[in-house]
UniProtKB/TrEMBL annotation:
Alphabetical list of PANTHER family matching this protein: OS04G0488500 PROTEIN, PENTATRICOPEPTIDE REPEAT-CONTAINING PROTEIN PET309, MITOCHONDRIAL
Pfam families attached to this UniProt entry: PPR, PPR_2, PPR_3
Stated name of the protein: Pentatricopeptide repeat-containing protein
Organism name: Linum tenue
Family (UniProt): Belongs to the PPR family. P subfamily.
A GO MF label: mRNA binding
PPR repeat copies, ranges: 185-219
CC annotations in GO: mitochondrion
GO biological process, one term: RNA processing
Keywords: Repeat
Matches recorded under InterPro entries: Mito_RNA_Proc_CCM1, PPR_rpt, TPR-like_helical_dom_sf
Amino acid sequence: MKSTGVFLSNDVIDKVLKKFRFSHGNPLGALEFFKLTGDRRGFYHSPFSLDTMLYILGRSRKFDHIWDVLVEIKKKDRNLISPRTVQVVLGRIAKLCSVRIRMTVESFRKFKKLFPEFDTTCFNALLRTLCQEKSMSDARNVYHRLKTEFNPNLQTFNILLSGWKSAEEAESFFREMEEMGVKPDVVSYNCLIDVYCKGSEMKKAYEMIGKMRDEDILPDVITIGDAYDLLDEMEGKELNPNSTTYNLFFRVFYWSNDLRSSWNLYLRMMDACCLPNTNSCMFLIRLCGRHERVDLALKLWGDMVDKSFGSYSLVSDVLFDLLCDMGKLVEAEKCFLEMIEMGQKPSFVSFKRIKVLMELAKDQDGIRNLSEKMAVFEPSVQVPQTAVKMVPEQAKNYSKDNIHGEELREMEMDSNVHLFHVNMRKL
């Protein structure tokens, strides 16, 4: 890098580290790059670079390196350590550690020596981390253990309310909020209404809307679904929506099974140069699967490959299910190979589903090729020793209707295995 004379600006460094993150590059190589660029006199990393570097290290369980980086950053510019930084670090620890609740809280306390203002904002970052990892019981216990050390505010309760699926738990926090003199806002009510709706307690949901009106709190876009007006209003005030903002609308469209509105929102998002995150991609790809829109699913996948956003492993499982169900063997093979070329490991369940289609199409060359590629990630995969040349049209024209008897039962069994793994990931 020194010999090229290329000026490594914050923008360039941000993009390189982002590429490291989404391509699952060597974490220690990324750290070396981060240190080398940061050691220059008068140079300061951006908050984005710091948080991305910490995410890369956390994903690889390099927790000692995380604290080394934070100590060095504190010496140079402690203002780079933000509540977002707290959340990134705690999120990796909570996700990967078997004793996550203890280590998460211990790590949270370590930030007291690093963070300029260790206050309720940091406390909220801890709770948000636990809620996002679906550890609601942990979030509840941590809240009650630490609430006397901080001053819980409206955001604290909204974070906790947003994670509960149990109306009883949500109502408990709602009551505690009111007892502490914290006035609920439209977000607080929306969280409670959402819990009631998911639990089919529509009477309570309508009563809560009535209570909102009694307190002069107007229902917002989430309560009435008027998404585009709010986006227009935000843009008119030069408040550019980010991926998290868009996800609020994707969630509404997903639960209402509205693919058309979701796709239009996706196009608007891309036109605004706001790249979707993994949640956005999952809402879209699942809707494409429901509506059997192979063309839109492949367009989304193509954008992900070209622009490097979203989780390839999560999206690909849903994509391969759709392609296999629709008998799109050529497209499934192409996407599978693209994924491997990017160094991403397809799931073994997806590999088996595509392999079944190839066997039915008598595509022995394709089976051998995919087996060889998959064997790099899964040593247990057996690579066929012989290959019989296939007729290309057999694969292209193959459809689900051609599968009969034992073959159909084998495909259904693979689908059930896949659904089991999906449900386990949710748990």
